[in-house]
Amino acid sequence: MPVSTVAASAAVTACEGQSQWQAALLLFSGTKVDQILANAAISAAEKGSQWQVAMQILGDFDRWRLQKTEITYTAAISSCEPAGIWHVALALFLEMRHALPAREQGVQAGSVLLALRRALGLAKAEELLERFRRLWEEEVPQVEQRRVAGFRVLGSGCGVLAIDKPQGVETEVVISELRAALQRPISCTSRLDLPTSGVLPVALGDEGSGATQYLRAQWAARLVSKQYLCLCVGEALPATRGEIRRGIRPVPGNLLMQEVSPYGRPARTAYQVLASYSHPENESTLSLVQVQLLTGRKHQIRVHFASIGRPLAGDRRYGGANDFWCERMFLHCRRLQVRDLRGRRLVVKSPLPAELAALLKRLEKKRLAHIARAARLVATYDQFKTIYGNFGIKGNSNVVASSFTAGLVYSIITMPFESAKNRMASQKPDPETKQLPYRGTMQTISTVAGKEGALALYNGFFPYFLRCGGHTVLMFFAVEKMQKMYRTMG
Question: In 3-state terms, the chain is what percent helix, strand and coil (to 5)?
Fold first, then answer.
């Protein structure tokens, strides 16, 4: 039974979405071709990085008497990216500029630049970008910094303005309000998620303006440098520097969510660990990470780190716990580098919002407190080592007795703080006031001691002491062995 063109188009599009380009083209080959089906087939070839197949289909458009549209050219040019077939991509771009009257061609230009960059390197791509810039160059008024009512302007250049987006506001809402404040056309060339804060660039012009196309070309060619700061929850990352390479696609049946998948679009995230902290509520680690996006997929940072078992703090959508200690998702765009329509490099930075800076300050304070407690533990161990030595206890017996006693002292001192942490982690809001009973470590200790007595803070002390004491013994045995080894080497 012959397959209808409409059904075949839908099937090819579905296969394209699952990166099943072979199946898509098999369906295509046995069906009467129309505009929609031909475009879907080229798009499927593009998703499968099959530029030769895309060119073959494109070459048959005249035979089929089909008109090449913006969709046609976009998919065909994009198919040249992975293999770096830049000369074919450039020829198609120039053909498109001649054949189509539309001014919105920045994305296609970016695909040409990306293909050139893969083949000949960054310098050649930037040379071609400069030639494209001259095509779009126009007089664009430059908005003075910090003079847009209701907005914090981080920087501006010819055709581009960067503002500080607050968390909890949709990018589209910010753009609409900024457009009203400026009383002139502006275009959004990138966006930040609702819970993300930081640098948000906009083009000073409508969708077809040279400013917008120039920015879009830079984004598509991955010539924009965008740096984020995030806080991850989980085990410490295996290296201070690394890169996550996992394809990303929409979750089937839920377009609001993304997931890693071998059938997704290629996605790369480079990261550097800046600091590590202890989790306020459990034994996991918090890692402060600087992130550089090497591709620009939806929710990329959130999905990538969640996929390796380290979701962002406060990210309830992708596995971050709903904890009182982090009231918002810890993801902030801190730096952006782009070129304006005069070709000048524009670098803008956004300081960490007050609530995130305060959170890091609390975590750092706690980290320093842990270091101080460890130092006191060592001092206590040395004191007991001397005391037991005076009683004639030597060797391993001295190490066991001294470390176990030091662990006992440590447990007595730290147990109230451990109890407070456990109570804060398991607390529930009051049914009437909806308020949480505990708001901080010292307030929790004071409240429990006042209402239940000081001994309530030592419930479960014996297993806690055994855990601390055991760890202390193992730690100091290792320390003594290392010291002995160093003395031998010396």
Answer: 50, 15, 35
3-state secondary structure 273-330: EEEEEECCCCCCEEEEEEEEECCCCCCHHHHHHHHCCCCECCCCCCCCCCCCCCCCCC
SS3 of 471, please? Answer: helix
Q: Where are the domains of the chain?
A: 5-136, 153-351, 359-489
Q: What band does 14 get if pLDDT is binned at 50, 70 and 90?
A: very low
CA dist 58 and 96 (Å) reads 13
**SS3 track for 204-246:** CCCCCCHHHHHHHHHHHCCCCEEEEEEEEEECCCCCCEEEEEC
Q: Which residues are catalytic?
A: 193
* Helix, strand or coil, per DSSP, at residue 431: coil
One-letter amino acid of 214:
Y
How many other C-beta atoms can be found within 10 angstroms of the C-beta atom of residue 465?
19
Evaluate whether 353 touches 334 at the Cβ level (below 8 Å): no
Burial class (CB in 10 A: 0-12, 13-18, 19+), 208: middle
The model's pLDDT over 65-99, given as tens digits with 9 standing for 90+, comes to: 889 999 999 999 999 988 899 999 999 999 998 88
Using DSSP bridges, classify how beta strands 160-165 and 153-157 pair: parallel, antiparallel or unpaired. Answer: antiparallel
* Of the candidates 222, 249, 225, the residue with the CA atom closest to the CA atom of residue 303: 249
Q: How far apart are CA 64 and CA 138, in angstroms?
A: 40
CA pair distance 16, 396, nearest whole angstrom: 68
φ, ψ (nearest 5 deg) of residue 244? -100, 125
Q: Report the CATH fold assignment for 153-351.
A: Pseudouridine synthase (3.30.2350)
Phi, psi of 290 (to 5 degrees): -95, 130
Instruction: Compute the distance between CA of residue 428 and CA of residue 450 in angstroms, rounded to an integer.
Output: 20
Residue from 31, 49, 315, 320 nearest 195 by CA: 315
Question: Per-residue pLDDT for 8 more than 50?
Answer: no
pTM more than 0.85: no
Burial of 141 (0-12, 13-18, 19+ CB in 10 A): exposed
